[in-house]
Each structure stands twice: as structure tokens, then as C-alpha cells.
Amino acid sequence: MDHNYADTVLDLYDIALLLNYERASTEPRFRHAKLREVATTGDFKTVRLLTPAWTEAAAIPRVGFIFDKPLKPTHAEKDEPDLPTNMLPASPSVDLRKLTPTELETHYWQARNHDGCYRTMALLQHFIDLFPEFTRVRVRTVENNAPRSYTTLANERLIVEMKLASPRTLSMSCVLPVNTTCITGGEPTMDHAILGFSAPGSDIDTILDLSSLQFGDVGRGHKGRSLFVLEPVSQYLDRLSKYAEGHNYDQAKISMRINDAPDSEWLKEVAQRTKLRWHNRATDPWCGHCGAPGRGQPLKRCSKCQNAHYCNADHQQAAWTFHKHFCTEPKAKNLHSSKKASF
């Protein structure tokens, strides 16, 4: 299919939704894995782990996950995306059954965002490379409870690499029986990378952090609801104090590109799928909270603007804190309402 890119404007918020969904739902380290156990203090109940980073981290909040990954997925599982809603095994433990949908969602993203910052940098780099150099991107944020929007060139985004001192939390995921262990935090310093965008003629004023949920719920975006962070720099600097005791953002390394990440071929496939979904946006919408497609069932539509779609009422409510600032009724309707849109 031929596309006229002269008028293309990529919406950064929507692209972030799609990239994160396509990445997390096919993440190779956790592909088809089911959550066996969650631990926040002491030992796991179902397995004994001697990982020093976990056993010696009693001084800071921690969360650990044990996953069971099938050596050979069933035919039905093979093409099924991995989601928070299918992360539990067929017969979950009593403790797992007590988890709320929001807790499951956080655990899902926290596990899949181990070492996620550089993967997401490379992923967005692959995605932008699929478009001409002159492609523009629309950046939408909310500052002081007011919407802000500007358009800039997609290839003028900057990669910001910094050090976080004394991360405030530790998370660990162990995938069995392959014995893959991923750890975030627990060391004096850790590397972190984000994307910076600028309004024309200004310095970096907006930050996109696609892997923010590696730090748990403090990494949720707008008003603690979003699955990634897209916000003004001033707000992000405040957020960094929740990630770690210190940071060197002011001395961060700034670059236009980074070297390829592990699993580069998979990331390129994710970028291609995201591009296809963006091109098909008029006929195949996605959830404005998690980025999921309808998958055979129509998504619910925002009754006010008729443009945003959601998996369910919970996702609509989670997205509303951001969407309400950009939700406008179709011009054909001369209606005025300050109430939250419903399905």
C-alpha cells in the first residue's frame, strides 16, 4: 500500500500506546509465561532463590515474580498475545486470586520492563526509521491541569542517558525452567534512558519514558493511571525523586541515536506491526489505555468525541485523566458537557 507521507503527523501518545502493547505482548523473555508467585518480603513459597541482590535487599521495598514458561506452547497459545488478563495459570494460587486487575497490570508491566529503557529507545528508533525524514510528530501533554500540544520533526527527538543513585525499589523476575533472572534496582547506581522532545525553538521540554513501570506504580503516567510517562520536564524531574534518591539529569549524555539493542530483529518486527496498525487506524482502532486492538470484538467508543476507544469501562476511566483534556465533540454536534464521557 502506498502512503502519502507529506501530510503525516504521528501522534506521540498513540504511538507510545501501540509500541508498548506490541512490545510487551510478545516480549521474548516472558513469551507465554504464566505467573506462579509474587513475593514482597522474605523467601518465595514455591522455590528457593539464593540471588544475593534479592536476599540482601531487605532495607528497601522489593517485589519478586516467579514465572513458568512452557518449553513448547500449545497451538492455541502460539499466536495469542501475552496480556495481564491471561498472565495467570489455569489454577492460580489463593494469593494470586486475590490480586486486583490493577495489581496484575502493574506486575505485568514491571516484569516486562526489566532493562526496558534501552529496548524502548531502540524500538522507537526502528519505528521512526520506517518514515521519511520530514515526518512530523504531535506531542500532547498536560501541564498545570491544562492541555499543551505542539508539532515537531520526529527525527529531532533526543536520547537522554542518566544515572540514578540508590534506586528506591528492587524488582526481580525469574522465569523457569529456563532460569532467566532479571533484576532492576538493588545497586548503588543504575543507568536509565528516556526520550526528549522539544517545541520548535526550545530546549528539551517533554519527556517520554516508555519503561517507567519498571519502578512499579510510581512509574505510572498522568495522575498515576497511564502505563508510560509523557510529561513536561519539570514534572519528570519530580518523578525521578520517586525512582531514586538522586540522579544526574543535568549532566546526562544527549545523543540522536543509540546502538542496537538485544533482540533487534524482534524489535524491528514490533516496529513494523506498529506502523501497520497506525496506517489502519481508521478501520482498526485501539484501546486508549493499553493499546490493545479489538481482536474480534468491537471496542467501546467514547460517547463524547467518538474518536477514542477502550477495552472496557476500567480502561476508559484510567485514560480519562489525560483524554479529558483533548476530548472534543464532533463539529456536527453542538453539544456542551463537562461530564466524563461514557460508552
TrEMBL record:
UniProt keyword Zinc present: yes
InterPro entries the UniProt entry points to: Znf_MYND
Keywords: Metal-binding, Zinc, Zinc-finger
GO molecular function: zinc ion binding
Record domain MYND-type: where: 287-327
Record-linked Gene3D superfamilies: 6.10.140.2220
Pfam families per record: zf-MYND (PF01753)
Protein name: MYND-type domain-containing protein
